[in-house]
Amino acid sequence: MTKSGSLVVVGSGIKFPSHMTTEAQLCIERADKLFFLTSSEAAEQWLVERNAAGESLDRFYAKGKRRIDTYLEMVAHVLTAVYAGNHVCVLFYGHPGIFVWPSHELIRQARAAGFPTVMLPGISAEDCLFADLGIDPAREGCQSYEATDFLVRNRQIDTSAGLVLWQVGVVGNLTPPTPGAVPSLPLLKNALLLLYDPTHLVYIYEAAQVQNQASTVQCVALADLNETLVTAVSTLYIPPAQPAQINLDMLQKLGLSIDDIQFSETSG
Ligand SMILES: C[S@@+](CC[C@H](N)C(=O)[O-])C[C@H]1O[C@@H](n2cnc3c(N)ncnc32)[C@H](O)[C@@H]1O
Fold first, then answer.
1. Ligand 1 pocket: which of 235, 236, 237, 238 to mutate (most atoms <8 Å of CB)?
2. Where in the chain is the domain with CATH 3.40.1010.10?
3. Mean pLDDT (whole number) for 165-189
């Protein structure tokens, strides 16, 4: 039997409020209880104007507190409202399911407890990056990793495909970031230098977050990557270093030519 409470998880997109979907906005307005984690005071104000029962989850962050402890407290707090029988909407920045641990945990726990749950997609930083840098991930392929995860798991990188590294501005840091200090960035750079030439150009990207603001794109040689270039919202894009090899045997088995492959990569 479904219980009376419910949970919908929505995203604000990156540029506020223009990236917000109509579907997400309706959920925000109709919820008995709204929780949010956003990037700006203007966004908070906009949300509370649409739902007076809106509450920020920002207060769970604290200096020196491990991110996982913050997230567990957020999840417990939101679920209390669901278990009390409320139709709850939770909003996260960007796409709510991309690099957002509490959103998936909320869905998992609420669903396991028998409550109707849904996550609605939103526009992520990677979506903005593809648009602003003119990258179609179908052309050369694209790998996407969280920066600390990339370092600690020895990911096998294909340098003939693009590489997106998230959270480079907080690499190695499991507590809220200190602006300007990224002590582990040299470790990330050294790991990348094992894969790419020091002269390989990389892009430090920040998507516009408000109307009439331009996205920022800094292009530097990998050897010049340093902490003065990155912030907590920077995403690093590393273009392919060389074209991918074509498996001629497989082409033949598929009855395709090299021209066909180039066409299929550009069609769609
Ligand atoms: C916790 S993740 C949240 C991602 C978000 N849910 C999304 O869908 O884009 C934070 C990371 O997203 C990326 N990010 C967030 N805002 C960004 C922006 N305005 N421009 C570029 N990257 C951004 C950065 O890599 C940042 O460290």
1. 235
2. 6-119
3. 87
